[in-house]
Design brief:
With about 130 residues, the chain is mainly alpha-helical. It has helices spanning about 5-25, 25-45, 55-80, 85-90, 100-120. The longest helix has 25 residues, at about 55-80.
């Protein structure tokens, strides 16, 4: 049975086939469109399973994600008018990752796991 993503890809492929015929796209353009659909399916399928990784690696990436978020949120707070309710929520989190409450650490771990999916999908890390 096809999942909703496969159905969406099939519909997209059919729409692109119609456009190819209507607009008389050349063979090279058709190959590029097909390759992009194959890549999209591969990336999506890989993203559906979280790769197994060392807890230390997840923590290191989560720490880096938190550092990146602090840099971004502090810069944003200095450059534009940020609503006070956001500042009230952000400011207590401008601390080292190790000092964060567990719930905040888990939010950073979610993004760390997303990075792992990209690294595994690209073949940089092996499962």
């Amino acid at each position: 049975m096809q999942d909703s993503f496969d159905i969406a890809l099939t519909n997209l492929r059919d729409s692109l086939d119609f456009m190819v015929q209507r607009d008389n796209l050349n063979a090279d353009s058709r190959r590029k469109i097909r390759a992009a659909l194959v890549d999209l399916r591969r990336v999506y399928k890989a993203s559906q399973s979280t790769p197994k990784a060392s807890p230390l690696l997840v923590e290191a990436l989560a720490d880096l994600e938190h550092e990146q978020w602090m840099y971004w949120s502090k810069a944003l707070a200095q450059e534009v008018v940020v609503p006070q309710h956001k500042l009230d929520r952000w400011t207590p989190l401008w601390i080292p990752y190790r000092d964060l409450p567990e719930a905040s650490k888990e939010q950073d771990r979610v993004w760390a796991r997303k990075v792992l999916v990209v690294l595994f999908t690209a073949g940089i890390l092996q499962k």
